[in-house]
Amino acid sequence: MRVDIVTIFPDYFSVLDLSLLGKARSHGLIDVRVHDLRDATTDRHRTVDDTPYGGGAGMVMTPEPWGRTLDAILGATAPDPLASPGVDGVAADDAPTDVAAPGVPSLVSHDDRERPLVVFPSPAGAPFTQATARRYAAESHIVFGCGRYEGIDHRVFEDTARRARVELVSLGDYVLNGGEVAVLAMVEAFGRLLPGVVGNPESLVEESHEDGLLEYPSYTKPATWRGLEVPAVLLSGHHARVAEWRHEQQIERTRAVRPDLLAGRADAAE
Ligand code: SAM
After folding, report:
1. Which residue from 1, 154, 164, 167 is spatially nearest to 71, judged by alpha carbons?
2. Counting atoms of ligand 1 from 1, which one is nearest the CA of 175?
3. Would residue 195 be called left, alpha or beta, if left means φ above 0 and alpha means ψ between -120 and 50 degrees?
4. How far apart are CA 56 and CA 53, in angstroms?
5. What is the pLDDT along the chain (270 residues), one digit of tens a residue?
6. Are 75 and 118 spatial neighbours (Cβ–Cβ below 8 Å)?
7. How many helices and strands, by DSSP H and E, does the chain display?
8. Predicted local distance difference test score (pLDDT) of residue 106
9. What is the ipTM of this complex?
10. N or C: lower Cβ tally within 10 Å for the chain?
11. Ligand 1, from 60, 128, 175: best to mutate by most atoms within 8 Å of Cβ?
12. Taking a C-beta distance cutoff of 8 angstroms, is the pair 160, 70 a contact?
């Protein structure tokens, strides 16, 4: 899988050389290329921002360096005059990708599937979830564009949508200084789902959010530590009872901290 990342802080991504993703990169399972947006500037100061039209605080990233950088990555395909979708959000994760969330114009149609995917992290985007991570892990090429300042000139999304599938994706309901941390989180979340990245693929199946619930508590040796015992059922060797206990723990934990995840689940009815 190929991943291109556009940023004004390429050094942020040096951590992708570490740990499981670092190994995956060195084994050729994931090909990450980081591009410095400032390399596409033409002035002495390598400027990438300017004041917002209409006034307001802060600066906005100018479209030209974005256009040049994305042209170089995606190929400077001639804009399709028929494709001019508004860019306000993305197709919902749980829906087929050609169905937009209500009130949100979809940027994706059936014919689009062969187009590259370009993801712009944004607090105004659709939430990034485990379902998004799974979907991204099935892509062959994703380009990420890291915003800074007050964000990127909106026309960059519109221009990119003429030749790629564009998604605005949020890491959560808070505001970061830039898209770099969001991209790192997303790359780690889908990168570990790529075949061969995590040694034991079964460990991926039993994790929080994979079955819509939070994971059960885990224990290892010693069986007694500082007077605290491992639950007896886990020492019983009785697989069915262990599975039942774990499922109960999942429901209990999810009910305590994320009751929203239980809506409509028959196994969680009280
Ligand atoms: N003015 C923007 C707004 O209110 O929506 C926030 C801009 S933020 C200071 C700068 C950049 O950080 C954004 O363009 C985006 O790339 C990134 N960012 C901030 N919060 C984020 C979040 N929750 N999820 C994903 N990216 C985020």
Report:
1. 164
2. 20
3. beta
4. 8
5. 999 999 999 999 999 999 999 999 999 999 999 999 999 999 999 999 999 999 999 999 999 999 999 999 998 654 554 454 445 454 444 333 433 333 334 455 445 668 999 999 999 999 999 999 999 999 999 999 999 999 999 999 999 999 999 999 999 999 999 999 999 999 999 999 999 888 888 888 778 888 899 999 999 999 999 999 999 999 999 999 999 999 999 999 999 999 999 998 888 887
6. no
7. 7, 9
8. 46
9. 0.99
10. C
11. 175
12. yes
Cα–Cα distance measured from residue 40 to residue 67, given in angstroms and rounded to the nearest whole number = 9
Phi/psi of residue 47, nearest 5 degrees: -75, 135
Helix %, strand %, coil % for the chain, to 5?
35, 15, 45
Ligand 1 site, CB within 6 A: 121-124, 146-148, 150-151, 170-172, 174-179, 182
Strands (E), the chain: 2-7, 31-36, 49-50, 60-61, 117-127, 141-145, 165-170, 224-225, 228-229
Distance from the alpha carbon of residue 71 to the mean position of ligand 1, in angstroms: 23
Residue nearest to atom 7 of ligand 1 (CA): 150
Please give the domain boundaries of the chain with CATH numbers for all domains.
Answer: 2-78+112-204 (3.40.1280.10), 206-269 (1.10.1270.20)
* Dist CA 68 CA 9 (whole Å): 17
219 is annotated as contributing to ligand binding: no
